Amino acid sequence: MFSLRPLAARQTASLSLSSRVLARFASGPVGTPPFSLSSSSSNKTSNIFETAKSLEKNKPSSFSNTRNPSLRTSNKYGNSAPAPPPEPEDGKQRVGYVLHCKFTPNNTILTLTSQYVRVGKRYVKLTKEERYMDLVRPLEDVRINLTAGILGFRHTKQGEYEAGFQTAARMFALMSEREFLDHPLEIILSNFGKGREAFLNALNGAEGNLVRPLVTRVTDGTKIRIGGVRPPRARRV
């Protein structure tokens, strides 16, 4: 029959060995008095323990806000972090803006659109190809449409430098008033009317101080005609 005596004897021997080792380290080297803590060392040790206890009490909680989880959440380090923005009700998550600028010899036409990707229920109904298209070329909604004629310029004055400058300055002011400065901006320029130079000067001047830091890309969308039919005659006024 199996007996527990050898096991108990081994445990007793290991305990006695551990006690001898601890006593050896406490007594110090051979011929030296036993080790003892000085008053300064004991004070430092007590201060360390008190600091550890205070840190343990003030340790941030790793639980999220259970009363209102939508306000704040907790990350893996236990620190509270802002919750992600809620999904829009219409299922259109805005990702950026595009400013389409057309400078004809007779007018300056500016159109601001917002780019969005479909989320929520709209995203679930999309096919695989449509989801890829949302990432590569987001859809756009028109936000502001402005021309030189809307600002009061008539006839031949619509194509002048001053009309283009005033139209650009008014567009930048409307973007600031309607809070369309919360996402990156892409600018697409078309044609080479006098308003083109006026728009660039307004963008680089004081009128474009709020818009200029948001610009991430400037594209020239002028169509290049190679051959083709005979163009219409030049407009004479």
Automatic annotation (TrEMBL):
SUPFAM superfamilies: Translational machinery components
Keywords: Ribonucleoprotein, Ribosomal protein
Residue stretches of biased makeup (Polar residues): 60-78
GO biological process, one term: translation
Regions that span the bilayer: none
Family in the record: Belongs to the universal ribosomal protein uS11 family.
UniProt-listed HAMAP family: Ribosomal_uS11 (MF_01310)
Organism: Magnusiomyces paraingens
Superkingdom assignment: Eukaryota
A molecular function (GO) term: structural constituent of ribosome
Gene Ontology CC annotations of this record: ribonucleoprotein complex; ribosome
Region Disordered, annotated ranges: 30-93
InterPro entries, per database record: Ribosomal_uS11 (IPR001971), Ribosomal_uS11_sf (IPR036967)
Identification of the protein by name: Ribosomal protein S11
